């Protein structure tokens, strides 16, 4: 309860600190505007045209089904990789042998370009949801796996010993010693993986499906409709920014608070 | 030069410089700021509402009011501030009364020359033709640019030689301001419409305000926080001591946020100068607004913010941000007159911050405690209101004439109040037994300090 109250009390200040980010983004918009002025609307529509198109898509209701389809695939693949990556990573981290074995495998996974997985997925799953979901899973899994592995590998043995000396109950051992440390590794990995998932799903849709933002991008490309292209890109980026800064970043700060107070 | 012209002139200058009003740089200039601010807007409101004639100058009455408020009123306040603050910041001796007097005379000459520039051109023989306007404006150009560069030259060596060079923001600000004044008059002499340089001056003024307020606010906000801690003292005794201590953070004006805001304002100003009507400038305006809002992160410290002086400075930033927001939106094609945002900056941010500086720096350096009487609040509300009304007159379907009249009268009333309440202090010798620019020192609690 106190935690919730502290979180709510800190919320306005956190939201207000977003102005700095908005200032930088406005600079980006100015650069975008300059590029569009220099090269003409066919190469790069100006931001207002793109936002107007996006607004038109949202207003007519055309945007929601596509965004929902994309979000469904991205989140399904992401959830699978969070589950599998965290579990397997934690388990692998517990044993030195397992982590030694796992590392090269993960390197192979990370080194294989997502587009290669996409080609395989298209062969295996066809034009179903399976293709983007699988591609997202394969792209996000190694990032989370490595995070979880690092988290368990770097657990402080002396801390463990001290906790034992004080005869800490098992439950406290888990929640107060292991969990904060592991989570502080897992969380950044989850956030990085979410960004990857969101990017990869659009790419997969572009090539493999009939609906979703990626498919809409493919259509607007074939119509040479740069305004719609930029509108879809803006929609995807804005959604990612919203999820990251409104949901994940506050949680991350809360989870990592103990680090700053340590010394 | 003075020595050769004889003792009479020398003695006259020396006698005048010996008056209390020239004891410190802020005294004559803050007095001039308040009086001149009220006068110019009174004349301008008269022109707008009943067609009162204004001095004919190159570019017409709009240029007259913009130039006089930015480079007459605004620059007088800046001069008063830096002539007082720079010696204090750099721990160097105060500027001598005779030097202060010369700056004041130069400022007066600049005002007279600009007011009379049209009349002078008309007086010149018709044979001069197109050259008459040029010659008529020349004295105004020389005195105005001379004043701006003289102020820069007076404080530049001290700011530069300061071991840590922590106050170079003022140096660049003053230099940019002098360039803006110079650019204005070069444009007039070349026969071009010079308003773009007033906009540059406005941007520079906004940056200077951000720099100056960061210094003033540290003091004001931490005083307010101390008062708030003292107010909570009983609660602190009753409850856990550390808990009460933790509740109130201390205030610090952090450089990274300030630098971001100044860079954003500078970018907008440069872009507006190069591309006056462009969506690029519009986005940069929104960016400047966001960067100024970002500055307020330092300010949200709870109830201490709601005290008089803290809130006044806080309101300056809001007006600053809203001004850039409106200017940006206007450039992006929103149905807002471009003048709306400009006036939020010029009347709101500049007017209110100058009023605050007059009240805070003016009184403390004249040897008085901060003024807690109600007129300060009334004047501040009048300035803020007149900024909001003037901005509102730029929105669609507004009674423009009525709003501008009320806005003008509100401003005049506020600065007339300031001139009346503060002017007397600046003209009188100090009553606390200290001299020059020395700051007010509160008598030690309990025992009265000897001589205070």
Tell me what the structure shows.
The complex is a heterodimer of chains A (263) and B (452). Chain A has helices spanning 2-16, 18-39, 47-59, 63-94, 96-111, 114-125, 130-153, 157-165, 170-208, 213-222, 226-255, 257-261. Chain A has 263 residues and is mainly α. Chain A folds into two domains: 1-41; 45-262, Orthogonal Bundle (MetI-like fold), CATH 1.10.3720. With 452 residues, chain B is mainly alpha-helical. Chain B is built from 17 helices and no strands. Chain B has helices spanning 2-5, 7-17, 26-50, 61-90, 97-115, 117-123, 130-161, 168-189, 195-231, 233-238, 241-247, 255-274, 279-295, 308-331, 338-365, 374-392, 400-427. Chain B is globular, with a radius of gyration of 23 Å. Mean pLDDT of chain B is 88; it is low at 1-7 and 446-452. Classes of the chains: A mainly alpha (263), B mainly alpha (452). Chain A binds chain B through residues 12-13, 16-17, 19-20, 22-27, 29-30, 33-34, 37, 46-48, and chain B through 257, 260, 264, 267, 271, 278-280, 282-284, 286-288, 290-291, 293-294, 296-297, 300, 332-333.
Shape of chain A: globular
Q: Average pLDDT value of chain B?
A: 88
| CATH homologous superfamily classification of the largest domain in chain A | MetI-like
Rounded Rg of chain A? 22 Å
User: Which sequence of SSEs, written as H and E, runs from N to C of chain B?
Assistant: HHHHHHHHHHHHHHHHH
Head-to-tail CA distance between termini of chain A: 26 Å
Distance between the termini of chain B: 42 Å
Count up the helices of chain B. Answer: 17
